[in-house]
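Supplementary Note 3. Input sequence used for the single-chain structure prediction.
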Amino acid sequence: MPTDQTDAVVAGHICLDMIPTFEGSIASLDALLTPGRLNVVGPLTVATGGAVPNTGLALHRLGVSTRLMGKVADDMVGRAILDVLRAHDPALAEGMILAEGRQSSYTVVINPPRLDRIFLHCPGANDTFGADDVDYDKLSGARVFHFGYPPLMRRMYADSGRELTDLLRQVKQLGPTTSLDMARPDPASEAGRADWRRILERALPYVDVFLPSFDETLFMLDRPRFDDLERTGDSDAQADAAILRELSDQLLSMGAAVVALKLGTQGLYLRTTDDPDRLASIGPCVPEDTALWVNRELLAPCFEVEVAGTTGSGDCTIAGFLAGLLRGLSPEEVMVAAVAVGACNVEKADATSGVPSWDAVQERIRSGWGSRPVAISLPGWQWHEEAGLWRGPGDPRIC
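The predicted structure, written as discrete structure tokens, is reproduced below.
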């Protein structure tokens, strides 16, 4: 139950997800979304969505003491969000911020089996979230502060990310290890036209652990290459070791200590700073043996599962990563835990109900759970059978 000595605080974007279920297979999203066609669907799943409930509830289910900070309105959607949070634990709704005269955020998630998702999203009160909305007194004793989805929150990306930078600076001054996740905006929207390179340059000096997806990062740092990959197919599958290293080099040079890029079906990529002093400065989550985390490059493949839906998979992967970090695990153990939690998540249609306890995740890993093959080109990389992941050619742990 959250207390003033909470281990993790998760703040940022929150909404209500409405997820119709699909019976049988769907050939393509184009076929599903044909104008004028009536598609018969199954029961509606209603769940909270966004970084706050997805990552926050996953951490809660993993046994991490967690406080949530999101912004809702006093309307039907907002009341439904609070009811869902209270059903998990009444205290989880206590950190919610009430936005007077606003509408709560909601998302219609079109999530057929074996196909990627489409979101119909109303940002609502999230657009008004600013640095002054965080209750900094409630961060006392917190070991990690995670903020999610600033591209879906207008005040966070306006004015070159001034509010986001101010928020992260104030949190960092209080001591917690800071963590940041992104979201990919509609390219034609105001957020899609924002100068994300400039925003990241301002914010990342106050971010210890940066956990975006590969395609979000490519969108923000190399739009021409992103557009080329989008035209030719799945950008995650077309990532290669050189692109991953190039992007992570840029993010580390902007100030982050640890960069983990989510690769969709290809797993999770890790790069860490080569500066021991920067790593030692991350706060309460600093590893006992910092040498294990300096200048690392790893890729953990996804585990084999029967996919029911991918909603929240990246957020739950982040929860697994942060839970491992809070437990003082090695980079290898943290990476494997992260993709394991993400794999558990996709076995259910909603964002968090597939996440079991931490002990159950670890037992499943130890049971010989198989990994999916990686299609990414990894020249010079080595597979580490015992750890269950790939190590980069420059990784200091390669013998």
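The CA atoms of residues 219 and 227 lie 8 Å apart. The chain is about 35% helix and 15% strand.
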